[in-house]
Amino acid sequence: MLEYLILGIIQGVFEWIPISSEGVVALASQFFGVVHNPVDLAIFLHAGTTLAVLVYFWRDWIDVVTLRNRKLLKFLVIATVVSLVVGFPVYKVVRNIAIGSGLLFLMGLALLVTGILQSKRLSFGFNLSKLAVVAGALQGLASIPGLSRSGSTIFGLSLGELDPHQILKYSYMMSVPVIITADVYLILQDHTLALDSWPALITSFVVGIVSLHLLLNLSKKVKFSIFAFAFGILCILGALVSLFTGV
């Protein structure tokens, strides 16, 4: 149970930072020797932080459900459809190759891409529908462990005229429908996933709801691209060591 508690803490903190929580959780789950597929487990643990997003932005969700904010509803629908269309085939591929040193290589390369995306701030004046397509596609690609979902979508949303607070809010909210869909699929595929990992879900929610406000403010001030580059290089070096030493 201890390993799941630790994985939940990792998910609860790293989800809000533009350094892939999925990649870190998948890597840590391999280190702990967790029996479930590391990619499946990493995706499933997003359920805890998804609940944190629902609670933290509860007023916005009420506006969406009651149709008081049709603009946000349209954005979420488009982003969700695009994310699922792009993300499902990507998930089916990486699920079978992201094991051992292969996961380290994949995560390292994806983190370098994340760092590049985070270091760029371009604006093309895209409207909200266009932003939904771009950010949705990037969120789908973030099925690749190491390619930060938050980092990628923040980059995509910054191509329009949204202010920093809106960018962060839209980035976090657009994850909810996709994660709910993905987790339902995973539970149907493996009923033991939820039974084994419930301690991680609880800790990821508790840690996530506590850290969300602090990390939202922090993410406006810190250049996380530096961390992404550094962690990506370390992952690639670790994969090379593992490959040549057999460790």
In short:
This protein has 247 residues and is mainly α. It has helices spanning 2-14, 21-32, 38-44, 46-56, 58-65, 70-97, 101-119, 128-141, 149-157, 164-173, 175-189, 192-218, 225-245. It is 79% helix and 0% strand.
What would you note in describing this structure?
The structure is a single chain. The protein is mostly helical and 247 residues long. Helix 4 packs antiparallel against helix 11. The longest helix has 28 residues. The radius of gyration is 17 Å and the shape is globular. The chain has one domain.
Determine the oligomeric state from the structure. single chain
Question: Distance between termini?
Answer: 26 Å
Low-confidence stretches: none
Q: Order of helices and strands, N to C? A: HHHHHHHHHHHHH
The total count of strands amounts to 0
State the helical fraction.
Answer: over 70%
- What's the average pLDDT? 83
Please tell me how large the radius of gyration is.
Answer: 17 Å
Sheet with the most strands, sense and barrel status: none
Shape: globular
Number of helices: 13
Assign the structural class, choosing from mainly alpha, mainly beta, alpha/beta, alpha+beta, or little secondary structure. Answer: mainly alpha
Estimate nothing, just give the exact number of structural domains: 1
What percentage of the residues does DSSP assign to strands (E)? under 5%
